[in-house]
Amino acid sequence: MGELQKEQAAKGEAKPLPVVVKSESAGVLPIPKVLEALGGASFVVVLVIFMLIEQHEIRNRFIRLTGHGRLASVTRGSTRPRSGSAAT
Fold first, then answer.
1. Domain carrying residue 37
2. How many domains does the chain have?
3. DSSP per-residue string spanning the chain
């Protein structure tokens, strides 16, 4: 036993009661969790739509951010080959 327990036992104090943690009943429908999932999914959908609409602007910003001094290599890697041309 630890020193504190020995001192309490020597004084004749009552033993501490065990603590029991019970979770609240979730009910029939876990509405907050469903709303959280729907909120996250809708946020992702909005971001994807925005990125598809602004695809060229995002590409230009990426090139401007990473391509300082090496514009040719950055644009070569970020452009898609046309259907009639061969990729190098």
1. 30-69
2. 1
3. --HHHHHHHHHTPPPPPPP---PPP--S--HHHHHHHHHHHHHHHHHHHHHHHTHHHHHHHHHHHH-TT-HHHHHHHHSPPPTTSPP-
Q: Give the predicted TM-score (pTM) of the model.
A: 0.45
Model confidence at 32, in pLDDT bands (50, 70, 90)? confident
Q: Which two tokens stand for residue 9?
A: 């036992």
Q: Are 48 and 60 in contact (CB under 8 A)?
A: no
User: Is 13 domain-assigned?
Assistant: no
Q: CB-based contacts of 59: which residues, under 8 Å, 6+ apart? A: 78
Give a yes or no: residue 10 inside a domain.
no
Cα dist from 32 to 21, 36, 41, 43, whole Å? 22, 6, 14, 16
Residue 78, CB half-sphere, CA atoms under 13 Å: how many? 17
